[in-house]
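Many introductory courses stop at the sequence. We go one step further.
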Amino acid sequence: MKPDDITHTPPQGIPMGMRIPITHEQSVPTVSARALHQALQVATRYHDWFARMRGHGFVEGKDFYTTSRNTSRGRSHIDHAITITMAKELCMLQCSPAGREFRRYFLACEQDWESPDQLIKRALAFARARCAEAQRRIMAEHGLPRGLTVLGGIPSTGAGGCRGVLGPAARGCA
């Protein structure tokens, strides 16, 4: 399943000016450390601030992921995708009104992420992706052309989806 198959919108009631986009490019929801740095109105340069924050015991690959992209001037632009947990801790470390507000924002996002509706939505997206992957694998193993589905063991061009390929075991796929 691709991480961007799952979308997350911040909870209702959060002012637009306080929203920091939450991405799903990693295995867990993350936010841009640069965006948080800017939102918290930290006076020090991003590079220096993040190096100082790393000193609080955060682990790359667990708490944050380094990303880079080239700017229009051809320079490398380093950012960090930080977990919501790390973002909340960074907000607390700032000891500022903005830090408290953004920590509350991340707490609300976390509660929304763990709500039953969101859990079901993610589970369905995961099941659909697994179902589609199983169908592709079965089609490739049997040399069947793309776009062809198998209904009850009989090749068809109908829209049988996973139910036809996997039989009764895939009744929940849609």
